[in-house]
# Entry
Amino acid sequence: YNVECLIESVPYVIKEIPNAKFMIKMGHIIPEERVEKFKNLVKNLKISNRVKFIGYVPYNDLPNYLACADVYVSTSLFDGLGISNIEALACGTPAVLADIDSTRNLIKKGLHARLYPPKDSKALAKEIIASIKNKEKENKEIHKENYENIKEHYDFDKNIEKVEKLY
# Structure
């Protein structure tokens, strides 16, 4: 994950949306020295009052975090399916995703999300700003389409049935 890209996008977002705040969920597999590097970058950019790092979140609590966010951002440089992207969209949270193969495939399957060139913090900021200013959080039709699409293509039980039929 290119967390630096998200952190570096924050000052650009704040210029356009002065009250913006960022919550960055740090996975348990990120070494402490990298976390310290991210915290130092936040401090050096003078955005400490805008960025909060959180650690482990119980799986059952994730929908609450995702549903209350104005925008979900993934800075993944490579991903398999990108389950967290699908989970965010299923919760009705607009998503800004790095333009990589797996996220392009989500768009091809009909999911609505914004893409930005990986490692481009200015482009990421532009998409975050556009998502917030266009009030995508309030677009119930897009959320409904995303949810229906996810139920159709990404439902665990349906996919297990397909695998079982193959065997």
Summary: Residues 116 and 124 are 6 Å apart (CA to CA). Strands lie at 22-25, 51-54, 72-74, 95-98, 114-116. The mean pLDDT is 92. Helices lie at 3-16, 32-44, 62-68, 83-90, 101-108, 121-133, 140-153, 156-166.
